[in-house]
Design a protein that fits this description.
The radius of gyration is 25 Å and the shape is globular. The strands form two sheets. Strands 5-4-3-6-7-9 form a six-stranded mixed β-sheet, with helices on both faces. Strands 1-2-8 form a three-stranded antiparallel β-sheet, with no helix packed on it. The chain has three domains: 170 residues; 98 residues, no CATH class; 181 residues, von Willebrand factor, type A domain (Rossmann fold, 3-Layer(aba) Sandwich). 49% of the residues lie in helices and 8% in strands. The protein is an alpha/beta fold and 507 residues long. It starts with 11 loop residues before the first strand and ends with a helix. Pfam families: TROVE.
């Protein structure tokens, strides 16, 4: 099956800014919405609105594609919540085979995803009261039962948390068949609430916090020793380490421990296993860079190495391929990706842009708002380059004049091969001259660079684009916040689409 981005008679519409735009096909709109979903309020779209749009789009797509997309979102984009939404919606609409149960068993990869899926099922079906999960879809039930068999005692204990649905409730509901006597014993312990307390950084530090100490100095010593033990044990996960760098530095752990921390952060195998989204490294970088510790410089260097490792498989471009990397710094990009995050869409734009810049040998970088400005950056230090861009975003204003990127190339008669624009795609012209990205791109290809390609990296998934996305126009759409978005470039250059990798998934 091959998906086209647009039918040829697609009628123009307008975007959230009221500017001319084109609708995406249901497949591509769902892909873009899923790849950029944090299920929290955005500049143009509330969380409930995005969730309802996801549900509506699932109904417009083939069940197999929805299932393939859910697997892609979980396994390639490393998203957790939105694949569960797709599972629940597919269960509501699809009957007659085992597609849903196979999908659930594949995308549920942590015990707390069992309870999260059930909680969303209750919400999506407007259930309330004491029997919020009665009449559970049989295919969901079967898939969740299979998922239970994947987890050991440590995982069950670690993720057995308070909430609307507990793991114990889920166990009673889906009735998993234990694969052996040992697992049955674990299930029995879960029911009785007798699973051993897991060894995690949360439980260890909680125990320290509940202790009694003669002085504050004794308490600080206990915290420091606990962090040193956790790090030395090798049982502190990469994400936990990344998120707690500030706490570790402020605990004043030993030099030997900090050396171990930096070694773990910079280990390419640890980075690969951690499956961190690139902007997580930026968040950690910002948390520690202003701390007074003498170890900060080493940590920042380790984080630069880590994000470089995350891009090691990113296909770069040699000196013969002329590339433009343009980052949108408009007001709508100054929105946090989730309610609990300090990371903005703007940050995601810069991180992905600088990752790509680091892999190109002939590249122009810049940012656009009211104006477009070229900014030369050293190739290599991704996070440092992001921070330099971040400090300069006010230099171009906060409108969305993305067409100026192409106009600049046209006015210079400068032929390039690839233009990469990282944006929320809600572009409009604030200058009043009527120019659009579609007009500028068509003229640029006609007059200056007939074989140039334009790649729109959609970071928000609002469902429209400012120009037609077709092979014959040289325009492609890629969506998401992960470095995996760059894998799509190979598919595009080989005649495929952003959906090519999704289509390959077998269930």
């Amino acid at each position: 099956m091959r998906f086209n981005f647009f039918s040829r008679n697609t009628a123009p519409t307008v975007n959230h800014e009221g500017a001319p735009a084109f609708m995406l096909t249901p497949q591509v709109e769902l892909y873009a919405a899923v790849a950029t979903a944090a299920l929290s309020d955005q500049f143009y779209e509330a969380a409930d609105t995005r969730l309802q749009r996801l549900r509506d789009l699932v109904a417009k797509n083939e069940p197999l594609f929805v299932a393939q997309l859910a697997v892609y979102a979980r396994e390639s984009l490393h998203l957790r919540s939105v694949p569960l939404v797709l599972c629940v919606e597919l269960a509501r609409l699809h009957r007659g085979d085992s597609l849903v149960s196979r999908l659930v068993a594949r995308v549920v990869q942590r015990p707390d995803e069992i309870t999260e899926l059930l909680a969303f099922y209750a919400q999506a079906n407007a259930r309330s009261g004491t029997k919020i999960l009665n009449r559970l879809s049989k295919q969901l039930q079967k898939g969740l039962a299979l998922s239970f068999n994947r987890f050991d005692g440590y995982q069950l204990a670690k993720y057995d948390r308070d909430g609307a649905v507990r793991l114990r409730d889920a166990l009673f509901l889906v009735h998993p068949q234990a694969k052996d006597e040992a697992q049955q014993a674990l299930f029995d312990q879960l029911v009785r609430g007798e699973l051993p307390t897991p060894y995690t950084w949360e439980t260890e530090l909680s125990a320290v916090g509940q202790g009694t100490y003669a002085t504050d100095e004794d308490r600080q010593t206990a915290v420091r020793q606990t962090w040193e033990t956790l790090i030395g044990s090798g049982k502190l996960g990469y994400m936990a380490l990344l998120r707690n760098l500030r706490n570790i530095l402020e605990a004043n752990v030993s030099d030997q421990t900090m050396e171990r921390v930096c070694d773990i952060l910079a280990d390419r195998f640890a980075v690969a296993r951690s499956k961190q989204l690139p902007f997580r490294f930026l968040a950690a970088y910002r948390e520690v860079k202003a701390l007074p510790s003498g170890h900060v410089a080493g940590v920042l260097a380790a984080l630069e190495t880590a994000i470089a490792h995350s891009a090691v498989n990113l296909r770069g471009f040699g000196p013969d391929t002329r590339v433009v990397v343009a980052c949108d710094v408009s007001s709508s990009m100054q929105k946090a990706i989730s309610a609990r995050s300090k990371v903005l869409l703007y940050d995601v734009s810069l991180v992905l842009g600088m990752l790509l810049q680091s892999r190109c040998q002939n590249v122009i970088t810049g940012m656009f708002g009211d104006t477009w400005k070229r900014i030369s950056m050293a190739r290599g230090p991704v996070l440092r380059n992001v921070e330099e861009f971040y400090q300069r975003e006010g230099e171009v204003g906060y409108s969305t004049n993305g067409h100026l990127v192409i106009k600049d190339l046209r006015m210079r008669a400068e032929a390039v091969d690839k233009v990469m624009i990282f944006t929320d795609v809600q572009l409009w012209n604030s200058t009043g001259d009527g120019g659009t990205l579609a007009q500028e791109w068509a003229q640029y290809r006609r007059v200056v660079a007939p074989n140039a390609r334009l790649y729109l990296f959609d970071l928000a998934g609002h469902g429209t684009v400012p120009l037609e996305v077709r092979p014959e126009t040289g325009v492609a759409l890629i969506a998401g916040w992960s470095d995996k978005v760059f894998d799509v470039l190979s598919a595009l250059d080989n005649g495929g689409s952003a959906l090519t990798e999704i289509e390959k998934i077998e269930l």
